[in-house]
Amino acid sequence: METHKQYTWWLKALSGADEVQARRFAGAIALEIGWGGISKVEELTGMSHSTISKGIEELKTSEKLEPPERLRASGGGRKKVEEKDPEIIRDLEKIMDENTSGDPMSLLKWTNKSTYKIADELRKLQHKIDPDTVGRLLKENNYSLQTNKKNIEGSSVPERDAQFRYINEQAKEFMNSGYPVISVDTKKKERVGEFKNPGRTWTKKGEAKEVNVYDFLSLGIGMATPYGIYDTKRNEGMVNVGISHDTAEFAVESIRQWWLMFGRYNYPDAKGLMICADGGGSNGTRNKGWKFYLQELVNQIKIPITVCHMSTAV
Fold first, then answer.
1. Whole-number Å distance between alpha carbons of 306 and 282
2. Which of 3, 30, 82, 186 has the fewest beta carbons closer than 10 A?
Protein backbone atom coordinates (compact mmCIF):
# COMPACT_ATOMS: atom_id res chain seq x y z
CA MET A 1 0.00 0.00 0.00
CA GLU A 2 2.82 2.37 0.94
CA THR A 3 4.49 1.66 -2.40
CA HIS A 4 1.31 2.60 -4.24
CA LYS A 5 1.03 5.88 -2.30
CA GLN A 6 4.57 6.69 -3.42
CA TYR A 7 3.44 6.78 -7.06
CA THR A 8 0.04 8.45 -6.57
CA TRP A 9 0.91 11.67 -8.41
CA TRP A 10 2.48 10.18 -11.48
CA LEU A 11 -0.30 7.61 -11.75
CA LYS A 12 -2.76 10.52 -11.81
CA ALA A 13 -0.74 12.29 -14.52
CA LEU A 14 -0.54 9.03 -16.47
CA SER A 15 -4.33 8.69 -16.50
CA GLY A 16 -4.70 11.92 -18.52
CA ALA A 17 -2.08 11.06 -21.16
CA ASP A 18 -2.71 9.64 -24.61
CA GLU A 19 -1.28 6.26 -25.63
CA VAL A 20 2.10 7.54 -26.83
CA GLN A 21 2.62 9.87 -23.86
CA ALA A 22 1.53 7.15 -21.43
CA ARG A 23 4.01 4.52 -22.65
CA ARG A 24 6.89 7.03 -22.70
CA PHE A 25 5.99 8.22 -19.21
CA ALA A 26 5.73 4.63 -17.98
CA GLY A 27 9.08 3.90 -19.57
CA ALA A 28 10.65 6.88 -17.78
CA ILE A 29 9.34 5.68 -14.40
CA ALA A 30 10.61 2.17 -15.08
CA LEU A 31 14.07 3.55 -15.88
CA GLU A 32 13.99 5.66 -12.71
CA ILE A 33 13.10 2.63 -10.56
CA GLY A 34 15.94 0.64 -12.09
CA TRP A 35 16.15 -3.13 -11.73
CA GLY A 36 12.62 -4.65 -11.87
CA GLY A 37 11.18 -1.31 -12.98
CA ILE A 38 9.23 -2.71 -15.94
CA SER A 39 7.53 -5.36 -13.78
CA LYS A 40 6.75 -2.76 -11.11
CA VAL A 41 5.20 -0.32 -13.61
CA GLU A 42 3.34 -3.21 -15.23
CA GLU A 43 1.86 -4.08 -11.84
CA LEU A 44 0.85 -0.49 -11.04
CA THR A 45 -0.60 0.52 -14.40
CA GLY A 46 -1.81 -2.68 -16.01
CA MET A 47 0.23 -1.88 -19.13
CA SER A 48 1.79 -4.77 -21.00
CA HIS A 49 5.49 -5.55 -20.76
CA SER A 50 5.94 -4.85 -24.48
CA THR A 51 4.25 -1.42 -24.27
CA ILE A 52 6.52 -0.27 -21.43
CA SER A 53 9.56 -1.66 -23.25
CA LYS A 54 8.60 0.26 -26.38
CA GLY A 55 8.38 3.44 -24.33
CA ILE A 56 11.88 2.81 -22.96
CA GLU A 57 13.25 2.24 -26.46
CA GLU A 58 11.78 5.55 -27.63
CA LEU A 59 13.30 7.38 -24.67
CA LYS A 60 16.77 5.85 -25.25
CA THR A 61 16.95 6.98 -28.88
CA SER A 62 19.30 9.86 -29.56
CA GLU A 63 16.73 11.60 -31.73
CA LYS A 64 14.46 14.31 -30.36
CA LEU A 65 11.00 13.04 -29.51
CA GLU A 66 8.30 14.59 -31.65
CA PRO A 67 4.52 14.36 -31.24
CA PRO A 68 3.39 11.54 -33.53
CA GLU A 69 1.09 12.31 -36.45
CA ARG A 70 -1.20 9.58 -35.21
CA LEU A 71 -1.41 7.59 -31.99
CA ARG A 72 -1.67 4.22 -33.66
CA ALA A 73 -0.28 2.74 -36.82
CA SER A 74 -2.59 2.61 -39.80
CA GLY A 75 -5.12 -0.13 -39.26
CA GLY A 76 -4.45 -0.29 -35.55
CA GLY A 77 -7.13 -0.35 -32.87
CA ARG A 78 -10.37 -2.22 -32.60
CA LYS A 79 -12.25 -2.64 -35.85
CA LYS A 80 -15.73 -1.18 -36.17
CA VAL A 81 -18.62 -3.58 -35.93
CA GLU A 82 -19.62 -3.00 -39.57
CA GLU A 83 -16.12 -4.01 -40.68
CA LYS A 84 -16.23 -7.25 -38.70
CA ASP A 85 -19.87 -7.90 -39.60
CA PRO A 86 -20.69 -6.40 -43.04
CA GLU A 87 -24.20 -7.91 -43.05
CA ILE A 88 -25.25 -5.74 -40.10
CA ILE A 89 -25.87 -2.66 -42.28
CA ARG A 90 -28.15 -4.60 -44.61
CA ASP A 91 -30.15 -5.98 -41.68
CA LEU A 92 -30.32 -2.56 -40.03
CA GLU A 93 -31.73 -0.97 -43.18
CA LYS A 94 -34.20 -3.83 -43.51
CA ILE A 95 -35.45 -3.17 -39.98
CA MET A 96 -35.70 0.59 -40.57
CA ASP A 97 -37.61 0.05 -43.80
CA GLU A 98 -40.12 -2.29 -42.17
CA ASN A 99 -43.72 -1.20 -42.13
CA THR A 100 -44.61 -1.07 -38.43
CA SER A 101 -48.28 -0.09 -38.85
CA GLY A 102 -49.79 -3.50 -38.27
CA ASP A 103 -47.80 -5.51 -40.83
CA PRO A 104 -47.86 -9.07 -39.39
CA MET A 105 -44.53 -9.86 -41.09
CA SER A 106 -42.76 -6.84 -39.65
CA LEU A 107 -39.77 -7.38 -37.38
CA LEU A 108 -40.69 -4.32 -35.38
CA LYS A 109 -43.94 -4.07 -33.46
CA TRP A 110 -43.62 -0.61 -31.93
CA THR A 111 -44.26 2.90 -33.08
CA ASN A 112 -41.02 4.40 -31.76
CA LYS A 113 -37.96 2.72 -33.24
CA SER A 114 -35.62 3.32 -30.29
CA THR A 115 -31.95 2.33 -30.49
CA TYR A 116 -32.52 -0.15 -27.64
CA LYS A 117 -35.27 -2.01 -29.49
CA ILE A 118 -33.36 -1.93 -32.77
CA ALA A 119 -30.31 -3.38 -30.98
CA ASP A 120 -32.52 -6.15 -29.54
CA GLU A 121 -33.77 -7.06 -33.02
CA LEU A 122 -30.25 -7.08 -34.45
CA ARG A 123 -29.07 -9.35 -31.64
CA LYS A 124 -31.91 -11.73 -32.52
CA LEU A 125 -30.35 -11.84 -36.01
CA GLN A 126 -27.04 -12.94 -34.43
CA HIS A 127 -25.35 -9.52 -34.56
CA LYS A 128 -23.34 -8.35 -31.54
CA ILE A 129 -24.23 -4.69 -31.07
CA ASP A 130 -25.24 -2.23 -28.36
CA PRO A 131 -27.70 0.72 -28.54
CA ASP A 132 -24.94 3.36 -28.75
CA THR A 133 -23.45 1.65 -31.79
CA VAL A 134 -26.92 1.48 -33.36
CA GLY A 135 -27.21 5.26 -32.91
CA ARG A 136 -23.82 5.79 -34.58
CA LEU A 137 -24.71 3.56 -37.53
CA LEU A 138 -28.04 5.31 -38.00
CA LYS A 139 -26.38 8.74 -38.11
CA GLU A 140 -23.68 7.53 -40.49
CA ASN A 141 -26.39 6.16 -42.80
CA ASN A 142 -28.35 9.44 -42.89
CA TYR A 143 -31.03 8.55 -40.34
CA SER A 144 -32.12 11.10 -37.77
CA LEU A 145 -34.86 11.60 -35.19
CA GLN A 146 -37.67 13.44 -36.97
CA THR A 147 -41.32 14.16 -36.51
CA ASN A 148 -43.74 13.43 -39.33
CA LYS A 149 -44.41 16.31 -41.70
CA LYS A 150 -47.69 17.40 -43.22
CA ASN A 151 -47.09 17.47 -46.96
CA ILE A 152 -49.60 15.12 -48.63
CA GLU A 153 -52.62 17.07 -49.78
CA GLY A 154 -54.38 14.41 -51.79
CA SER A 155 -55.75 14.74 -55.29
CA SER A 156 -57.63 17.84 -56.40
CA VAL A 157 -60.87 18.12 -58.34
CA PRO A 158 -60.36 19.61 -61.82
CA GLU A 159 -62.41 22.71 -60.92
CA ARG A 160 -60.41 23.55 -57.78
CA ASP A 161 -58.19 26.18 -59.41
CA ALA A 162 -61.22 27.79 -61.04
CA GLN A 163 -62.96 27.91 -57.65
CA PHE A 164 -60.05 29.77 -56.06
CA ARG A 165 -59.90 32.17 -58.98
CA TYR A 166 -63.61 32.88 -58.56
CA ILE A 167 -63.20 33.55 -54.82
CA ASN A 168 -60.25 35.84 -55.56
CA GLU A 169 -62.22 37.83 -58.13
CA GLN A 170 -65.15 38.17 -55.73
CA ALA A 171 -62.83 39.42 -52.97
CA LYS A 172 -61.25 41.98 -55.31
CA GLU A 173 -64.67 43.22 -56.39
CA PHE A 174 -65.80 43.69 -52.77
CA MET A 175 -62.61 45.47 -51.69
CA ASN A 176 -62.61 47.76 -54.75
CA SER A 177 -66.13 48.75 -53.83
CA GLY A 178 -65.05 49.55 -50.28
CA TYR A 179 -66.88 46.58 -48.78
CA PRO A 180 -65.35 44.35 -46.06
CA VAL A 181 -63.90 40.91 -46.82
CA ILE A 182 -63.21 38.74 -43.79
CA SER A 183 -61.71 35.29 -43.37
CA VAL A 184 -63.01 33.22 -40.45
CA ASP A 185 -61.95 29.99 -38.77
CA THR A 186 -62.04 28.22 -35.42
CA LYS A 187 -58.61 27.90 -33.81
CA LYS A 188 -57.23 25.17 -31.58
CA LYS A 189 -59.23 24.65 -28.41
CA GLU A 190 -57.35 25.00 -25.11
CA ARG A 191 -58.06 23.81 -21.59
CA VAL A 192 -58.36 26.70 -19.14
CA GLY A 193 -56.83 26.28 -15.70
CA GLU A 194 -53.57 25.62 -13.92
CA PHE A 195 -52.05 23.63 -16.77
CA LYS A 196 -48.52 23.57 -18.20
CA ASN A 197 -48.12 25.53 -21.43
CA PRO A 198 -45.15 26.25 -23.70
CA GLY A 199 -43.28 29.49 -23.15
CA ARG A 200 -41.54 31.16 -20.23
CA THR A 201 -42.08 34.18 -17.98
CA TRP A 202 -39.63 36.18 -15.89
CA THR A 203 -39.81 35.17 -12.23
CA LYS A 204 -37.35 35.10 -9.36
CA LYS A 205 -35.20 31.99 -9.11
CA GLY A 206 -36.96 29.13 -7.39
CA GLU A 207 -40.37 30.79 -7.67
CA ALA A 208 -41.68 29.23 -10.89
CA LYS A 209 -45.45 28.97 -11.04
CA GLU A 210 -46.63 25.51 -10.07
CA VAL A 211 -49.26 23.85 -12.26
CA ASN A 212 -51.08 20.54 -12.38
CA VAL A 213 -49.07 17.44 -13.22
CA TYR A 214 -51.96 16.10 -15.31
CA ASP A 215 -54.07 18.01 -17.81
CA PHE A 216 -57.41 16.33 -17.14
CA LEU A 217 -60.35 18.50 -18.13
CA SER A 218 -61.90 17.97 -14.67
CA LEU A 219 -58.95 19.83 -13.10
CA GLY A 220 -59.59 23.01 -15.09
CA ILE A 221 -62.20 25.71 -15.39
CA GLY A 222 -63.34 24.58 -18.83
CA MET A 223 -62.47 24.74 -22.52
CA ALA A 224 -61.62 27.92 -24.43
CA THR A 225 -62.73 28.00 -28.07
CA PRO A 226 -61.04 30.79 -30.08
CA TYR A 227 -62.80 31.94 -33.25
CA GLY A 228 -60.72 34.19 -35.50
CA ILE A 229 -61.94 36.94 -37.84
CA TYR A 230 -59.38 38.49 -40.19
CA ASP A 231 -60.04 41.66 -42.19
CA THR A 232 -57.99 41.08 -45.36
CA LYS A 233 -58.12 44.68 -46.61
CA ARG A 234 -57.07 46.34 -43.34
CA ASN A 235 -54.77 43.47 -42.31
CA GLU A 236 -56.39 43.38 -38.88
CA GLY A 237 -57.72 40.50 -36.87
CA MET A 238 -59.92 39.75 -33.92
CA VAL A 239 -60.30 36.61 -31.82
CA ASN A 240 -63.46 35.89 -29.89
CA VAL A 241 -62.91 33.33 -27.15
CA GLY A 242 -65.92 31.30 -26.09
CA ILE A 243 -66.38 28.85 -23.25
CA SER A 244 -69.07 26.77 -24.97
CA HIS A 245 -68.79 24.31 -27.83
CA ASP A 246 -67.76 25.30 -31.35
CA THR A 247 -71.28 25.74 -32.72
CA ALA A 248 -72.71 27.63 -35.69
CA GLU A 249 -74.39 30.02 -33.26
CA PHE A 250 -71.03 30.80 -31.63
CA ALA A 251 -69.37 31.31 -35.05
CA VAL A 252 -72.02 33.82 -36.20
CA GLU A 253 -71.99 35.53 -32.80
CA SER A 254 -68.22 36.06 -33.21
CA ILE A 255 -68.82 37.70 -36.60
CA ARG A 256 -71.59 39.81 -35.06
CA GLN A 257 -69.19 41.02 -32.35
CA TRP A 258 -66.60 41.90 -35.00
CA TRP A 259 -69.16 43.92 -36.94
CA LEU A 260 -70.43 45.78 -33.88
CA MET A 261 -66.92 46.55 -32.57
CA PHE A 262 -65.00 47.21 -35.78
CA GLY A 263 -66.82 46.50 -39.04
CA ARG A 264 -69.54 49.13 -38.90
CA TYR A 265 -67.02 51.84 -38.00
CA ASN A 266 -64.37 50.86 -40.56
CA TYR A 267 -66.94 50.38 -43.34
CA PRO A 268 -69.82 52.80 -42.63
CA ASP A 269 -70.98 52.82 -46.28
CA ALA A 270 -70.74 49.09 -46.85
CA LYS A 271 -73.56 47.58 -48.85
CA GLY A 272 -72.27 44.04 -48.56
CA LEU A 273 -70.04 41.73 -46.50
CA MET A 274 -68.01 38.84 -47.89
CA ILE A 275 -67.02 35.92 -45.64
CA CYS A 276 -64.35 33.40 -46.66
CA ALA A 277 -64.55 30.15 -44.68
CA ASP A 278 -63.48 26.54 -44.95
CA GLY A 279 -65.99 23.86 -45.79
CA GLY A 280 -66.36 22.13 -42.43
CA GLY A 281 -66.98 22.66 -38.74
CA SER A 282 -69.23 25.32 -37.27
CA ASN A 283 -69.14 27.32 -40.53
CA GLY A 284 -69.36 24.33 -42.87
CA THR A 285 -71.22 24.20 -46.18
CA ARG A 286 -73.75 21.65 -44.90
CA ASN A 287 -74.32 23.22 -41.51
CA LYS A 288 -77.94 24.43 -41.49
CA GLY A 289 -77.40 26.31 -38.24
CA TRP A 290 -74.64 28.36 -39.90
CA LYS A 291 -77.08 29.49 -42.61
CA PHE A 292 -79.89 30.12 -40.15
CA TYR A 293 -77.87 32.32 -37.80
CA LEU A 294 -76.27 34.18 -40.72
CA GLN A 295 -79.73 35.11 -41.94
CA GLU A 296 -80.53 36.45 -38.47
CA LEU A 297 -77.35 38.55 -38.66
CA VAL A 298 -78.36 39.89 -42.09
CA ASN A 299 -81.73 40.87 -40.68
CA GLN A 300 -79.99 42.75 -37.88
CA ILE A 301 -77.26 44.67 -39.75
CA LYS A 302 -79.40 45.26 -42.88
CA ILE A 303 -76.71 44.39 -45.45
CA PRO A 304 -76.39 41.22 -47.56
CA ILE A 305 -73.71 38.66 -46.70
CA THR A 306 -71.90 36.61 -49.34
CA VAL A 307 -70.16 33.43 -48.16
CA CYS A 308 -67.41 31.79 -50.22
CA HIS A 309 -66.28 28.39 -48.96
CA MET A 310 -62.72 27.32 -49.70
CA SER A 311 -62.68 24.16 -51.78
CA THR A 312 -61.06 21.07 -50.28
CA ALA A 313 -59.04 18.25 -51.79
CA VAL A 314 -60.95 15.10 -52.63
1. 17
2. 3
